[in-house]
């Protein structure tokens, strides 16, 4: 959603999916804890086993995703002095997508919607960069997994990076619609909302 169309920054929402490796690594609690500690509010959560169609829809919601992932991936190969599997970004992205479709249906995932000021950007910051080898220490992907594009490519599989997080608030709205029905999301006041967003902090000394 465009920030200007939100009635307040605190209502921004974003999608997080703990991927099959995150569930198998017993990191569900740790991942949730990191977003919770930031002050974000959990407004939807479910465990499910996704199917390949759903995963394809998820990654192709943004019509520009294939081109950008393909280009990023080709640039990554060249930077490492490696020959990309193709010069066509769409062809490279199709291969990435096929691997993602295997990875993301390999076991249960936990889908969540987190709400709060700048939710999408904050969640990306806590989650860390896509490739665990280079994700910052202190982020989920930087702290809990040691995978790399190079190793994943050599084994013809997706890089395992514990969580998916929407790239921005607009992407998040489309992804939330895909993963959740409206009645699966809960609108409520969290006691913490007051210390986070109340303008005057009235009532603390009452
Ligand atoms: P994310 O939003 O940080 O997960 O990253 P993207 O949306 O750009 O990519 C989605 C998924 O595609 C990642 O989690 C990876 O599995 C895969 N991917 C993205 N970029 C690359 C790349 O450069 N090389 C390879 N092999 N896979 C990639
Ligand atoms: Mg993405």
Strand order of the largest sheet: 2-3-1-4
Order of helices and strands: EHHEHHHEHHHEHH
Overall geometry: elongated
Q: How many beta-strand elements?
A: 4
Structural class computed from helices and strand pairing: alpha+beta
SSE inventory with pairings:
Blueprint: E1 13-18, H1 20-24, H2 28-38, E2 41-48, H3 52-60, H4 65-79, H5 89-103, E3 109-115, H6 119-127, H7 140-144, H8 149-154, E4 163-165, H9 169-179, H10 192-197
Antiparallel strand pairs: 1-3, 1-4, 2-3
Helix pairs in contact: 3-5, 4-5
Bound molecules: guanosine-5'-diphosphate (GDP) and magnesium ion.
Guanosine-5'-diphosphate (GDP) is lined by residues 69, 72-73, 76, 96, 100, 130, 149, 152-153, 158-159, 161, 164, 167.
Walk me through the structure.
This protein is of the alpha+beta class and 206 residues long. The chain has helices at 20-24, 28-38, 52-60, 65-79, 89-103, 119-127, 140-144, 149-154, 169-179, 192-197, and strands at residues 13-18, 41-48, 109-115, 163-165. The protein starts with 12 loop residues before the first strand and ends in a 9-residue tail after the last helix. The chain binds guanosine-5'-diphosphate and magnesium ion (MG). Guanosine-5'-diphosphate binds at residues 69, 72-73, 76, 96, 100, 130, 149, 152-153, 158-159, 161, 164, 167.
